[in-house]
Amino acid sequence: MKKKQHSSGLTMLPGQLEPVRVGRRLFLRYAGAFTAGGVILSACGNEENPTTVSSTVDLGKDDVGILNYAYALEQLEAAFYTQVIATPYTGMTDAEKTLLTDIRDHEIIHREFFKAALGASAITALSPNFTGVNFGDRASVLGTAKAFEDLGVSAYNGAGPLLKDVNYLALAGKIVSVEARHAAAIRDLLNPKSADFAGDDVVAPATGLDVAAPPATVLTTAQKFVTTPISGANLPK
What we know:
By secondary structure, the protein is mainly alpha-helical. The chain has a single domain, classed as Ferritin. The chain contains 6 helices and 4 strands; from the N terminus they run ββαβαααααβ. The strands form 2 sheets. The chain has a two-stranded antiparallel ribbon. Strands 3-4 form a two-stranded parallel sheet. A hairpin with a 5-residue loop joins strand 1 (4-5) and strand 2. It is globular. The two termini are 35 Å apart.
């Protein structure tokens, strides 16, 4: 298949990405956001040479680095919700399990999309560290879920302006809207029938805009939940 080099350094293919079994239909919807513009993300460089594994994971630079940044966060969220569903906390209702299962599936789809899209440019699988979470306790689980979702929304909002390619920016906009829905749902579980779903701590009253955080700030928080050291030193600023 003939490859076309994109200005960002990523390779564009007129062909297809093979999605994972989980969420195949939704995966293809994401891929469609790129095919509509004639672009699908794939590997950067030679796929025959696997990514070198080192003690510290370097996210990379430019748009590839930002996509790896998103991939790292999606890895952590997917791992967290997978554990939540595998070991339900005491008193989890059917409605709560349905909601958390949906969130888990969304995060897995996001994770697998970035993994396939980045190809050989993708960072290695991270090793999560959830020792500080009591998965048997509702408050501990939902409190951590709230922290993850708020972090994810602020991360995408902060990374958006750093992307050079409008196609990647469009995708980030689609994903952050889903993450914001997750955040609102989790906040409602913790504090039902309140304004906390869009609290002043995440939505600035003066502007009506959600919080945006730079990668350095987000990675400092995320590092607490992963044993693999992550470096964003080469990310755009």
